Amino acid sequence: MAIPRASESSIVWLLRGSLSLFLVSNGRTLELGRNLNELESTCFRGMQLKIQTYRHSTLARVMAFLTASRVITRGRTSGTDRAHITWLEHMLITRARRAGRSHLNNGNTPAEPTLSEADKADTHLFLREILQVLPLVGLRAFEIPVPVATPNASGGVTPTAPKMSDEPDTVIVPAQKDGFDDVFLGQNAWWAIRIGGGMIPKIKYIAAYQSNPISAVTHVAPVASIEPYGEDGKYKLIFSEPARPIGPIPFADAPSGSMQGPRYTTYARLMVAKKVADLFPK
Predict the structure, then answer these.
(1) How many CB atoms lie within 10 A of CB 274?
(2) Contacts (Cβ under 8 Å, ≥6 apart) of 269
(3) 181 SS3 class
(4) N or C: which end of the chain has fewer CB within 10 A?
(5) 23, 3 contact by CB (below 8 A)
(6) Residue of 199, 196, 216 whose CA lies nearest to 270
(7) Strand intervals (E) in 45-146
(8) What is the rounded distance in angstroms from the CA atom of residue 206 to the CA atom of residue 237?
(9) 162 vs 24, 140, 165, 216, CA distance in Å?
(10) Torsion-angle region of 216 (φ positive above 0: left; ψ -120 to 50: alpha; else: beta)
(11) Where are the strands (E) in the chain, listed by range?
């Protein structure tokens, strides 16, 4: 079912009987929650609320997993209640945090409720089916990422005398102060970067261009691994060691807009450049 919203978005509803667990994703941000009202009112009120949250999109896909309110499993009658939904929410949030492929809006992870072994087995089977289906509709926030490249996985030391080469091996990313401090320096990683497929095996280093008022390339780090991030073909770069300061290499007379997105250069040019224009010779 399609509703008027963004092509990059997907809203996934997981419904059992009159209880529901829903996931909302716009490609980079993920949110999970539950609503215990009647199914009919839950759909309309819940979708309206979440659509307002992701108003920047234009087309959403809504997918529902449905079962009867009471089902017979292995010869016994069972139903879905708040404990089952809470268990699913707990497991999905825990897995999403572990995967780290989306920004999770949920501030708290609900405690795992107590279920009988039989109920837990049934609900775990339902969870497994959810995790098998979601990638088919483009929602990969729960998949544990597998590196697509590991250029410095052994923690190689940054060379002090790089070899001169015209083959790009360094990506320079623009960074706002908060993201630079919290992520580039604080977490020794950077995301979500769009990288051309042909460049992925070539990247060995990542450098940060700090935007206004600094307007300069100031730090570089070797890349340990490159992993998929989000649902729209972007990547997360994990460093093999903390970023170290260089330069700085000022924007100077570079053409306007030169550093609004990722750019490629060589580590050798990065080490000798006096200004941003030196990094990208014509």
Answers:
(1) 11
(2) 278, 279, 281
(3) helix
(4) C
(5) no
(6) 216
(7) 58-65, 70-73, 76-79, 103-104
(8) 8
(9) 46, 38, 9, 21
(10) beta
(11) 2-5, 10-16, 19-25, 29-35, 58-65, 70-73, 76-79, 103-104, 170-175, 189-194, 205-210, 216-229, 234-239, 244-250, 263-265
Rounded to the nearest angstrom, the gap between the alpha carbon of residue 208 and the centroid of all alpha carbons in its chain is 20
- Classified by CATH at the fold level, domain 170-279 comes out as ph1033 like fold (3.10.590)
**How many DSSP H helices and E strands does the chain contain?**
5, 15
What lies within 8 Å, CB to CB, of 201 at 6+ separation is 149, 151
pTM of this structure: 0.64
Q: CA–CA distance from 120 to each of 32, 60, 87, 159 (Å)?
A: 20, 32, 8, 53
Give pLDDT tens digits for 188-247: 999 989 998 789 999 999 999 999 999 999 999 999 999 988 767 889 999 999 999 999
Phi, psi of 12 (to 5 degrees): -115, 125
What six digits make up the tokens of 172?
């320079």
pLDDT in tens, 149-181: 888 766 554 555 556 668 999 999 999 999 999
| Chain Cα centroid distance, residue 15 | 25
For residues 102, 38, 43, 131, the Cα torsion angle rounded to the nearest 10 degrees is 40
Q: CA 114 from chain center: how many Å?
A: 31
Residue 130: predicted pLDDT: 83
* Cβ–Cβ < 8 Å for 183, 190: yes
* Each residue's pLDDT tens digit, 100-134: 877 777 777 788 888 888 888 888 888 888 888 88
Q: Cα–Cα distance between 131 and 92 in angstroms, integer? A: 9
With a CB cutoff of 8 Å and minimum separation 6, the contacts of 212 are: none
